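Risk mitigation, structural track. In case the binding assays with 6-diazenyl-5-OXO-L-norleucine fail to produce interpretable data, a predicted complex structure has been prepared as a fallback.
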Amino acid sequence: MVGAMRSFSVSPTARSVGSLRRLFALAAALALACGAKAQPADPTPAASSPPAASAPVAQPSAPAPAEPAGKTAPEPAAKPLLAVDVATGRHGAVTSAEKNATAVARAILERGGNAVDAAVALGLALGVTHPTAANMGGGGFMVVRKPDGSSAMLDFREVAPSKASRDMYLDDKGNVTMDRLRGPRAAGISGNIAGFAMAHKKFGTLPWKDLVEPAIGLARNGWEIDNTHAGDIAEALNEMRSYLEEVEAAAKPNPALVAGLRETMALFSHPDGTPLKAGDRMTAPALATTLAAIARDANAFYRGPLAKKMAAEVTAMGGLWTAQDLASYRAIERKPIVFDYRGYQIITVPPPSAGGVTVRQIFAASETLKLYEKPWDSVDRIHLYVEALRRIYADRNNLIADPAFVDVPMKTLLDVSYMARRMSDVDLKTATPSSKVGAGVTMQEKPQTTHFSVVDAKGMAVSLTYTLNGSFGARLAIPGTGVLLNNQMDDFTSKVGAANAYGLVQGPQNSIAPGKRMVSSMSPTIVAKDGALRAVCGSPGGGTIPTTTAQILMQVLDYGRTIDQAVANTRIHHQWLPDAIIHEETLDPAIAQALAARGHKLISRRAIGHANCIEVDPTTGDLRAVADAGRRGGDADAY
Ligand code: DON
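Fallback model:
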């Protein structure tokens, strides 16, 4: 946007390799077999990216992986990297998933608001213009770093309703049921408004109502739908339609749920029932009224007539929310995880998100295995990185949960020497089957997201990830309010050993209990060096969130890449189960084949995550904001 903006895409050199077509066919089959959630089709075609306007990402000087024997014919080359949107400036920087929301944050910064003011206004505006992931019906985590170097973390994750119970998503045969993902029973008690209000109270400088007003204006006056959101809406309406058909086909359809679903579909449709499309102007009058009540008093979401109405509507549709659940909800300020990594200070989130522990462990593995000494694209580095992830996610899935309910062995998990022990059985050349890797600590049995970053002129930084969980959450709005229900309950362990929507196979520590926060992977992170801000980063993407965040930061901190180069680059992920490397299709086929030769299974995806990040250029001090535009749209701005 305004500022020195540019975008680029990079085409790695074509290399001919062995039979990759077979490998990708295998990967596709694996994705199905493993139940890996397909990424929603991204309507933003990479091919529409503006032409390259900057130097391409420096390719490390690693020798190309050895050519496999038996090569007979030229094979497909890696695809060009996805485009990013970059903006640089000196006074403020913002990057988010949607351009009207980015503009709201910039306007708040320009009128003298600090980064938290801008983040709160952005979070509320994005709740209007990015219904895919935001909206006040969700929850999330925020990391703040103040110019004096102090930091804080706010947890506004949803909690399970008081009527929730461990086996609430198991049918009489013990199979997990769809109501953990869809409809009124999927929703935890939302935390977003409590989180934003707490952030404003602790760190904000402008009046609360001034931060809510831009969101009200957007909801009332409308905004233009872009390609990405038009695609999201079309897909969500299809899902809502088939859900409605199922509800109506029931022996005794719940009339309140039928009406609620029809009203939800109408929010995103023309009067004739066709989906809103790119270029259409969308308004959200019910949301504007709800936001107006919140502008008068943030507590209105949790107490009083609005709260009572929401609880009654959810109950009528068959959900579990009570007015008392809303009244008891509290955002929590927690001590962030702060650790040193090769001269940098990294600040990230503690449980109930597992994201920060995972990020810390990835950096500990990097130190232990000296990953940073190996070229970024070398097969040896990727192999070791993946072996580390396999072990780290075995811990993540089996040990981490809401600390109010479970004794998470934090001291051990954050200890670099523990990681060294965990890595001691890594085979340098061969993949360890995940079936041979368990959690490193034994425990008593107890029991579509979005990230944005903001930096202000004084160097105050906010890294914030929040979510409805799935795209459009439970695919259901609370009638009359415009509030979309989240489907965050699926982040609990519905059944030990069964994968959730993100393929995560989690343990009993994360079982459902009333008032408990479901474990998350979100990892909003901030990096400082020598007492000054260096980078702000995070991403959506379920289990892939911490690996996306850590990979971007490792490229910036260890490989001298700019943040836009790091965001553009190919992402690789492993989460213990499914036992496969999940990688973007831009991965060089020669590398993919060399990894397969070491015993790794591979699953290819068009895109992983959506990282909207900012760095302070270490040489010039300029702010460089990058939106991960080629993966799922978005808009970076700086001035
Ligand atoms: O909290 C979590 O880890 C998940 N609910 C995040 C879901 C997500 O990232 C969806 N977006 N792609």
